């Protein structure tokens, strides 16, 4: 295997990502430890250094992923975003980039104590998700393919890259909202008398724990995986003097936390949608053809438009808004990953990743199949 091939660099990215994830889990747990009550001093300096190393590992994973994409470009001699073997690593690249951007935008480097533990847990879960995603990618068909004529456009790189950044940023938003609900659930269970959780919320959290399971490995990690991990952290925290008091500060800031993630991702999702229309006009002289993938992407975008509307018009802030972000993430995953398994996708103009399935929707029909205008 060549040292600097696409595949070897993806494996390097996977190793860095998974290694960083497990390192991050250990560091995050240490932040929840009551150092001050135990030793009379604040958290040790080495813990802060270890926490900073975690974001460095995220940066290294991003660099390795960028190098992999560059290698693939020279292997296939076009923007590497045609097959899922190429598109998903582009998405993880954008996921790493989004993590670094959000780390700065959310000011995670400035927080300390349990809040820093939460931020490290947040980064660790993103790295874990990207690592397992790349593990899945390495099992896909690595064959490079020539670009169909419709993809030979300058919109090809910008349209897909904007969507990947938007999609993976909203996956992160879903994770942030889900962590909030999971911690609230466990606090309501472990400290039921003091912090009761409404029954409908308990049922809703239980439902969302199970809902992603049919989506495969990623759904299991997001649903039951994050749910059980948050339960473990809460159980360990009960043994400390302050118990789960650290959740109070997070609960107050979670709305702003998830909102800022939305602010970063929504412009890119919108840009991807607009560029898709411009590209369609250039390729088929039609801005919108009601292609099945177009409709699916539009539904995902509408989820977040509804979130924006309800936040400012109806005052849906806090947990109401975060609930929309949860289901918006599922909508994005259906558009990005599950779309290819749907019957309507078999004839979609966007199914260029499978050369055995020829797009056959109206815009690709032979000219004779269209209604010809009468000549006066």
Question: What's the quick description here?
Answer:
This protein has 376 residues and is mostly helical. It has 11 helices and no strands. It is 69% helix and 0% strand.
Explain what this protein looks like in three dimensions.
69% of the residues lie in helices and 0% in strands. The protein is built from eleven helices and no strands. The chain has helices at 6-31, 35-39, 45-76, 84-105, 113-137, 155-190, 199-210, 217-237, 246-284, 292-313, 319-336. The longest helix is centred in the last third of the chain and has 39 residues, at 246-284.
Give me the secondary-structure topology.
Layout: H1 6-31, H2 35-39, H3 45-76, H4 84-105, H5 113-137, H6 155-190, H7 199-210, H8 217-237, H9 246-284, H10 292-313, H11 319-336
Poorly predicted regions: 354-376
Number of spatially distinct domains: 2
Helix content: 55-70%
Helix/strand class: mainly alpha
Mean pLDDT: 85
- Beta fraction: under 5%
Number of helices: 11
- Looking at the chains present, what oligomeric state does this protein adopt? single chain
Give the SSE string: HHHHHHHHHHH
